[in-house]
Design brief:
Elements lengths: L5 H14 L8 H10 L5 E5 H6 L5 H9 L1 H15 L12 H12 L16 H4 L3 E5 L20 E11 L3 E3 L12 E9 L13 E7 L11 E11 L4 H6 L4 E11 L12 H11 L3 H7 L9 H12 L4 E2 L5 E2 L5 E5 L5 H11 L3 E5 L5 H4 L1 E5 L6 E5 L1 H4 L4 E5 L6 H4 L3 H6 L1 E6 L2 E6 L3 E6 L12 H4 L4 H4 L4 E5 L5 H17 L12 H12 L6 H19 L2 H4 L6 E5 L1
Parallel strand pairs: 1-2, 6-8, 11-18, 11-19, 12-15, 15-18
Antiparallel strand pairs: 3-5, 3-7, 4-5, 5-6, 7-8, 9-10, 13-14, 16-17, 19-20
Helix pairs in contact: 1-5, 4-5, 10-11
């Protein structure tokens, strides 16, 4: 490949920004620059998909942009400086940078003895009030963190992972002058960890430090599953640490764009066909059964269990009384039952459907891992809090499998979370409370492995009363020996294995993405129909009957599951 002609590439970048047309024929990037000039936005995102479809851009130019991204961000920024239009709308000059620029121009920057324009002698980074990002190709498969190698340094890469830690937003000096007056650029450090499905067997998840700047700060929070594209760069050591490290250097990702895998409920915007599909679903008189049957349709039976899990996903509004007392709206459900009744599969499916969910197991979780830990920040050397599973699942669902296998000392750590929905910390000079507004979905086995019908529920359920009282519903799922039921279940399982889908339900099960949209609409609905109240009363009546009836009467109930509320 021939040596790059940066002057020619700058002219090509300028031509692209000027002439590229959007989907409706409008000058896409000129309109963006006008919004920047009017101070409506501060970020200019150059999409590689647009460069690919521009007639004058060849593959070599695209390759240079992806392999030397930092240099070409500067080239595009210089082209934008030349193309920046005059503001067409009035805006208030209230930013520190505007006031500083006005002062420097008035003073002429050291008097302006040579007669040149003071603005021309300033570094361009000081004069810019925008940021430039380059977005990777949308069709490129993201890399896992362990696939990012030294050969990718300096290149634009796309990775996926879960955010485990976020730092405070700190000022970053962009240009150093003798009298430093410009240091308002923001930097945000994020720790990104591999997704569980990307980790090979027998390995631990790897993590990567990500730097977010400017408009990208505060776009992610711990627990978010995201896809990021950015420049993979080395971070050399300094001082005594450099002497010990030798030629070894840390690496980090300078983020250019962020895509969330799952949106929050309030971020869903229905468009076109999605809106029509949700409207048709809302007008369907059987929406309750269709939504519940769309939860894990490959799992046989458990109709009432799925209805309860649907209500768990929908939740209820949080109430705050006049005297300051708070009433939580998140439901806590525990699935208690015999082995092999698909409790764990139900938990994993709910985590897949929920916009924000964390899955963990009781044996592999500690009290600190569930709540919060105090660690030393490698950047500032200060003690910082790192949220555990319950904090990461804030405004979502935390699924805890093998709940009965947890140590009692670790299990007591979630008492406050289940009722007060906060995690209180008083360690290492840090005294605070973290929000943990999460619905807990737990799965556990009876005390003797299988449920013993000759014993009372209190004897079978191996959980302390203080914890049991915090669950809104405790489901007992029994595996009773019944020839007809077992034969029907076997046919269902064989059909799933042969066809990789559930048997016909009379309708097409909803995809998880459509389910999330329907749940978002239900979650913000303020109308409660009488049929909803009747259904709640039916469940309460069934629970009371199953709880207070004797063993002989209880054996005549639903062969799949009974309800035991706390």
């Amino acid at each position: 490949m021939k040596a790059p002609d940066y002057a020619g590439d700058r002219a090509l970048a300028k031509d692209f920004l000027t002439n590229f047309a959007g989907p409706h024929g409008e000058p896409k990037y000129l309109n963006i620059l006008q919004d920047v000039a009017n101070r409506k936005i501060r970020a200019v995102q150059i999409e590689l998909d647009d460069l690919f479809h521009y007639k004058d851009v060849d593959e070599e130019f695209l390759q240079r942009v992806t392999e030397n991204t930092r240099r070409y961000i500067g080239i595009f920024a210089n082209a934008i400086d030349e193309l920046m239009p005059e503001p067409t709308e009035a805006y208030t000059v209230d930013e520190d940078r505007d006031i500083l620029m006005t002062q420097r121009v008035d003073e002429g920057v050291d008097g302006g003895a040579d007669g040149t324009d003071p603005l021309q002698r300033m570094p361009p980074e000081i004069k810019r009030f925008f940021e430039v990002y380059i977005k990777a190709f949308s069709k490129v498969t993201p890399l896992t963190i362990r696939q990012v190698k030294a050969s990718n340094i300096g290149q634009l890469v796309k990775i996926s992972g879960i955010v485990t830690r976020c730092s405070d937003v700190k000022p970053l000096m962009q240009v150093a002058v003798y009298t430093c007056e410009e240091c308002g650029f923001e930097i945000y450090q994020v720790k990104l960890q591999e997704l569980a499905e990307h980790v090979p067997k027998g390995h631990i998840p790897r993590s990567l430090t990500v730097h977010l700047r400017g408009e990208l700060t505060r776009k992610v929070a711990p627990g978010d599953v995201v896809e990021m594209s950015g420049i993979f760069l080395p971070m050399p050591y300094y001082g005594f640490r450099a002497m010990r490290a030798g030629l070894v250097a840390d690496t980090y990702l300078e983020a250019m764009s962020i895509t969330h895998f799952k949106k929050k409920y309030e971020e869903y915007e229905l468009k076109g066909d999605e809106q029509e599909q949700i409207d048709r679903l809302a007008e369907d008189g059987d929406i309750y059964n269709k939504l519940s049957k769309s939860l894990a349709p490959e799992i046989f039976g458990h109709e009432d269990v799925k209805k309860a899990l649907l209500l768990l996903l929908v939740g209820a509004p949080h109430r705050k009384l006049a005297d300051g007392m708070k009433i939580r709206g998140d439901l806590h459900i525990c699935l208690m039952g015999d082995p092999g009744v698909a409790k764990s599969q139900l938990l994993k499916h709910i985590i897949n459907v929920a916009p924000r969910g964390v899955y963990t197991t009781g044996r592999g979780s500690s009290g600190v891992g569930l709540t919060a830990a105090v660690q030393k920040d490698p950047v500032t050397s200060e003690f910082v809090l790192e949220g555990g599973a319950l904090v990461l699942a804030d405004m979502g669902i935390c699924a805890i499998d093998e709940f009965d296998k947890m140590e009692e000392s670790d299990r007591t750590a979630i008492h406050e979370v289940m009722e007060q929905q906060t995690v209180s910390i008083a360690k290492a000079g840090i005294t605070t409370s973290l929000n943990a507004r999460t619905a807990i979905l737990a799965a556990a086995n009876p005390a003797w492995g299988r449920y013993d019908m000759r014993r009372t529920p209190a004897e079978n359920i191996n959980l302390p009363p203080a914890l049991l009282s915090r669950f809104d519903v405790l489901w007992l799922i029994l595996d009773r020996a019944d020839m007809e039921s077992d034969l029907e279940m076997a046919r269902h399982v064989v059909h799933v294995h042969q066809n990789l889908e559930s048997p016909a339900l009379g309708f097409t099960p909803l995809e998880p993405s459509v389910l999330r949209q329907a749940l978002a609409r239900l979650r913000f609905s303020e109308t409660v129909a009488q049929s909803d109240v009747d259904e709640a009363l039916r469940l309460m009546q069934m629970s009371k009957y199953s709880l207070y009836s004797d063993d002989r009467q209880r054996s005549g109930l639903d062969a799949i599951s009974d309800i035991y509320p706390s």
